[in-house]
Amino acid sequence: MLEIKNIKKSYHTGDFVQQALDNVSLKFRNHEFVAILGPSGSGKTTLLNILGGLDRYDSGDLIINGKSTKKFTDAYWDAYRNNCIGFIFQSYNLITHISVLANVEMSLTLSGISKKERRNKAIEALTKVGLKDHIHKKPNQLSGGQMQRVAIARSLVNNPDIILADEPTGALDSKTSIQIMELIKDISKEKLVIMVTHNEELAKNYASRIVNMKDGKIISDSDEVEKNAISKEYKIRKTKMSFLSALNLSFNNIKTKKGRTFLTALASSIGIIGIALILSLSNGFDIKINEFEQDSLSNMPIIIAEQGISLDEETISAMQEEISNESNYPSNEIISAYQLEETIPVHVNNITNEYYEYIKNIDERLIAGITYGYYTNLNLLVKNNNKVMPLNISNSFIPLPIKDGSYNEYLESNYDLLKGSYPTKSNEILLVVDMKNRISSNLLTSLGFEDEVSFDELLNKEIKFVFNDDYYQKIGNYFTINENLDEIYNNENNITLTISGIVRGKEDKEVLVGNTSGLSYRDDLIDEIINKNAHSEIVKAQQASDFNVLTGEKFDLSKDEDIEKKEQLLNYFGQSKTPAYFYIYPKDFASKENITSYLDEYNENKNDEDKIIYIDQSEILTTLSGSIMDAITIVLIAFSGISLVVSSIMIGIITYISVLERTKEIGILRAIGARKKDITRVFNAETFIIGLSSGLLGILIAYLLTIPVNNIIYKLTDLKGVAILNPIHALILITVSIILTLIGGAIPAKIASKKDPVEALRTE
Ligand code: ADP
Ligand code: MG
Q1: What is the CA radius of gyration of the chain?
Q2: Is the CB of 41 inside a 6 Å radius of any atom of ligand 1?
Q3: Which of 15, 553, 562, 583 lies at a CB distance of 3.0 to 4.6 Å from 548, suitable for a disulfide?
Q4: Residue 122: is its pLDDT beyond 90?
């Protein structure tokens, strides 16, 4: 039972006010066929729209079942339109991009009815209007009469109590009009049908009651309802459209404009392609750099010396800071001093005998060699042109891992043996020349040669090592070097050293060893020397004295500094059997990892001052180079990110255009009960589809592009398969594409949902 009381409705256009309905009151029976007649502009459509909940009245009341609608929420109006009202329009208002069946199903879809039930009910309704054979056609494949039948089927399918028809035959020829009227009359047996028309004849022939309107007022009513009519109970079921239905609707819409959707998706996929390519390249380069580092840098020794650098975050950032410091490369002409501690935080290592044992216990299978370094002085003499003179090689020492046969694996893989052989005895030493076959001029002249020397001449050179007791002589409490060098040169206790071979860093190891030159001797030479010198007179004397036995300088042994000085002096004389530093050469990358974790283990549960921190040069290089790579990647991604944002703005514009194009559809959906939210969903579904396709397309294109990109990189650098698209990155990018397009389309979707349904229906 439907009733309107004193309804007023006016439209404002500029200053002009059009009173479309002026104090209209009407009551309707549960079953009757009411025809509303009146000239154009008399307010018929406005009345119908207010009755159908499509438009709102300014004042008065619409009473459903004796209940006022003044306090109806949007949700109630939507539900009312969906399951109490069926609309039939003059211009049919079918959604053109979906089938006849889907059009009829739509209001059931909105009320969340299962697919099977939906289908059955829609087919039943279409059968009733005689369109059983046309259900899979699109609306534009039907005649006008047939389209109006579809609209009637749609209005009936939800079994509403009220059918509102606005000039349903206005666009049809008279013969078809009669068929449609018969159909509507049939419906009115069970329902309240209110039909607007300006065809008096049709109204008289079919309607049971005729209401005449003029200028927004009712001027006559042929069969007014008595005051106390009984009302019937309505139940209003709330409506809701699932995202899947919205997706389906938008998918069908998109299918009708495949070309445009494809171009949109393609354009907006450019950002995705860019980022995907950059990620796959940096991903691939990371892998290649790691491989390279594992191959070459693992040859770099792990150094344990007086001072260590631990690669914690603080140190790494200090190193980066040091490299990219603004005050680097000053233009002034001043030289200043620096302390190592000022640049990078270093740790002072206290290498004990216990640690020496620990190092000696490293699994031999992991190492290509170890060099034990001592601060002991080598008392060396050479005879140049029959003149004996001291030779100082402490600045030329290269800590190569020379030991017996098997350990030369390291030398063989990193150095070329130019002449002679690797040392096989403790008194044989190795000469290393740099990539230009050079050694320092200091070393060359000390050995008695001017600018050049042939390999053979050098290999014949003899160097004498003199033990402390023969080298130093005691005078009173002091010691001096024996001045008779000829005599000590010829002492039979001496060790005669010879250069057994000349090596040069391999060409492909240029970065690692290309510019080193000098002498390298075996650990067992030092063992031999220290074993004897540790018990020499000078060591014993120095141990017992509080002054320097060579210079007479006093030590104040209450000072740490002087204790240190004395200790250094003793080490110089060869007191200590504990090495001062170690060079550990790993066999390969995996071994390096094992060695460093073995070294780390030593530090567990130790006080900071007792910890021994090693220097892992390869790790330092890797860390620094890795962050440079990361920085480049971030910059490139930022650029592509911009194109991604631009493309999502583009999607926003395209969605807005789509909103404009689909205004009519929005009106239709609202008329059959879609909520504002459902309209938002329809457009979100559309952007979702575009976002998904642009993401998928972008990934596909980026993947295809990696093939030629890899070919080019292979030609340029000899590196194979650098660009690899990580599947996780691909998934993330597709998600990002969807999210960005959804954001881009959100505003237009909101605009769509806010459209006035009456106006939306009026657009063509
Ligand atoms: P009918 O259906 O009887 O031809 P309508 O109900 O459509 O008449 O219109 C009644 C009056 O209200 C007309 O004068 C029309 O111009 C005016 N009107 C209807 N809708 C609007 C609107 N959205 N804005 C301004 N005026 C309107
Ligand atoms: Mg009208």
Answers
A1: 48
A2: yes
A3: 553
A4: yes
